[in-house]
Amino acid sequence: MGINKVILLGNAGQDPKVTWYEGGSCVAQLSLATTEKGYTLQNGTQVPDRTEWHNLIFRNRLGEIVEKYVHKGDKLYVEGKIRTRSYDDQTGAKRYVTEIFVDTMEMLTPKSAAQTSAPTPVAPQPARPQNTAPSQDDGADDLPF
Fold first, then answer.
1. What does the mean pLDDT of the chain come to?
2. Domain that holds residue 63
3. What pLDDT, on a 0 to 100 scale, did the predictor assign at position 94?
4. What are the pLDDT digits (tens) for 43-95?
5. Which residue among 27, 70, 81, 87 is least packed, with the fewest CB closer than 10 Å?
6. Which region holds residue 139: left if phi is over 0, alpha if psi is between -120 and 50, else beta?
7. Chain centroid to CA 100: how far?
8. Would you say 31 and 54 are in contact if contact means Cβ atoms under 8 Å apart?
């Protein structure tokens, strides 16, 4: 038995490329950039940022959602399975492609940042704490707890 699970948090490097098939199914593809921040060693050596690019594949309903809502630069959290396939290029050389078949996705870019023409949203109200027991005070103050 084995586990094949990938978790990535990064930014879309392009708008998705979507292919529709007979019967209404679709496949969306996009690249995702994940960056490890650079740092300085104790001896003063600078280690630069390191960016990795990942090929993501979204199928069916998830592909439809990606087509409609995901754009270049959007921050995404994805979970999926890693798969490698090979093909022969035009010169006959064998090439390998590693892809992430996405099962779960969370869009992390705020709606207002994703839609620059959208009106400025109203700031959300702070959440009120829930009462765990009835209040024993006389009700003289206006506190919700």
1. 83
2. 6-37+47-109
3. 95
4. 999 999 999 999 999 999 999 999 999 999 999 999 999 999 999 999 999 99
5. 87
6. left
7. 12
8. yes
Nearest 5°: phi and psi at 69?
-115, -20
Percent of the chain past pLDDT 70, that is, above it, reads: 77
120 part of a folded domain: no
What pLDDT score does 57 carry? 97
Contacts 24+ apart (CB under 8 A), 2-8: 4/81, 4/82, 5/79, 5/80, 5/81, 6/78, 6/79, 6/80, 6/81, 6/82, 6/100, 7/77, 7/78, 7/79, 8/32, 8/34, 8/54, 8/76, 8/77, 8/78, 8/100
- Asked if residue 52 lies in contact with residue 33, where contact means CB atoms within 8 angstroms, the answer is yes
115 domain-assigned: no
Q: Comparing C-alpha atoms, which of 124, 112, 84 is closest to residue 100?
A: 84
Is residue 140, in this structure, part of any structural domain at all? no
Nearest 10 degrees: Cα torsion 44, 47, 49, 54: -160
- The H-or-E segment that residue 123 falls in is none
pLDDT digits (tens, 9 = 90+) for 87-106: 999 999 999 999 999 999 99
49, 65 contact by CB (below 8 A): no
